Amino acid sequence: MDTTFTDNPAIYSILLVPFICFALLCSIFSLICWWKIFQKAGYRGWESIIPIYGALILLRIIGKPWWWLLLYLIPGVNIIFGIWTLNLLSLSFGQGTGFTLGLVFLGFIFAAILAFDRNIIYKGPAGDPNRQLQDDISALGRNFPGQSPFKREE
C-alpha cells in the first residue's frame, strides 16, 4: 500500500504547530507595541487591549470624535479611515507621510519603532500640542463654557 502526504494527518499537525506558535508570538509582540504606544501618549497600557475601548482611546490620542468608530463598520470606508487614522497617529508622534506608509505596509515593524524609539515622543493630537476643542470639526454645534447659544460673537 502506497502512503501519500494527504493520508497522514500527523503531517498537518507538524506543519500547523510552528505556524500557530509564530502567530502567537507575533500577536504578543504587537500587543506589547500597542501597550507602549498608549503609554507614550499618556494613557494606561492596558487600555490598548480592550477591543472597543482601545479604539476609542486611539481616537482620543489622534484627536478625533467617538463617532469615527462607527465609520469603521462601513465596508470600503473603513479602509480609508483606517489609513487616515494611521496618518494622524504618525503625525501625533511627530512623524510624516513616509512613516504612515510604513505603518500601512509594514505595520509590524513601524509600530515597534513607534513604541520603542526613545526619540519619538507624543506631541499631541495630530501633532499639535496647542490644539483646542474648538478647532475640531466634532465641536460644531456645541456650547463652550462662557458662550451663550443665542449670542453671536462679532
Automatic annotation (TrEMBL):
Transmembrane segments: 12-35, 66-86, 98-116
Keywords: Membrane, Transmembrane, Transmembrane helix
Family annotation (InterPro entries): DUF5684 (IPR043739)
Name listed for the protein in its UniProt record: DUF5684 domain-containing protein
